[in-house]
Each structure stands twice: as C-alpha cells, then as structure tokens.
Design brief:
Number of strands: 0
Distance between the termini: 27 Å
Strand content: under 5%
Structural class: mainly alpha
Radius of gyration: 17 Å
Largest sheet: none
Number of domains: 1
Order of helices and strands: HHHHHHHHH
C-alpha cells in the first residue's frame, strides 16, 4: 500500500514539492517519500485507534473534504516538512493543504474503481490494521457478531445501508 501511496504522491508532487524553491532539489525525493509515509502512518494510526468504520466510510463515500482524519494527516505532514526540510511552517502548511487532498481523493477514487486491483479496500484495511480478518474487526463496530456473515462484503454492505 505504501508503494501505491508513493506513486500517487509522486504524480502530484510537481508544483508543491518538485518545482517549489522552498524545498531544495536534492531533497525532493525524500520529501515525497516522507509525505507518502506520513499519509500511511496517519491512516494506520486511525485504524489502530479503532476508527475502522470511519476509514471504511471515507473510502466508500468517495470524499475526503471536511474529514478530521485528513485534517490530522495534513497537520502531521506540515510539521514533518517544516522540521525535516527546514521549510517555514506557512510554506509547509501550503504544501500539505494542496497535495494531501489531491492524493487522498485519487486514493479513494482508485479504491472505488473495481477495475483497479492495486487499490482494494479489503487489502488496504488489512494492511492498515495488520489484521488478517478485517471482517471480524469491522463487525465490532457494526454489531454483527455472526462470523458467517462477517465477511468484508457483508460488513461493508451493512456499514453503508
């Protein structure tokens, strides 16, 4: 999953990182990798905090605007860019507020595309939680305790009725 995020960040890093004079060219690759890692860590942190239903809902709804999880990721990336690449807090904030919504919207869109096998919601949730049985994990939040019906398609279907 980190590889897919890295590709999305690379595709969207043009004006915000690569052509941005605030980040010296020798640090462009490191900045891109850091942004992708911070997105991954932020999503993983949400999963570990038990926000599985919120994550699944974000991916299923297809939108990331006005999402507190995304706001938290933006804040983390702002701090990381400022400290690691000696970028002013305002510039770091501008970069994060520009690139993260684009990347996350594409990430969510690809997750909802049945023809894009690189972005499967079940695999993403497994990766974020470290759990092999996301259905059981999600059932904790949906009240579905029937293991036979706790498969990911059924649980996700129940989440979004």
């Amino acid at each position: 999953m980190l590889d897919q995020l890295l590709k999305l960040v690379e595709q969207n890093a043009g004006d915000d990182i690569i052509k941005n004079d605030a980040i010296p060219n020798q640090f462009n690759k490191d900045a891109i990798q850091d942004v992708a890692a911070q997105i991954y860590n932020g999503l993983q942190g949400q999963a570990k905090q038990g926000n599985i239903q919120e994550l699944a809902s974000m991916f299923k709804s297809g939108t990331v605007s006005n999402n507190p999880m995304i706001d938290q990721i933006i804040s983390t990336i702002t701090g990381s860019l400022a400290s690691k690449f000696n970028v002013s807090p305002q510039t770091a904030s501008n970069i994060a507020n520009s690139i993260i919504p684009m990347v996350m919207n594409q990430f969510v869109k690809k997750t909802n595309d049945p023809n894009d096998r690189d972005f499967d919601l079940q695999d993403i949730l497994k990766n974020l939680t470290g759990s092999g049985n996301v259905g059981d994990l999600l059932s904790q939040f949906t009240g579905n305790s029937n293991k036979q019906d706790a498969g990911i398609p059924n649980v996700l279907g129940n989440l979004f009725k």
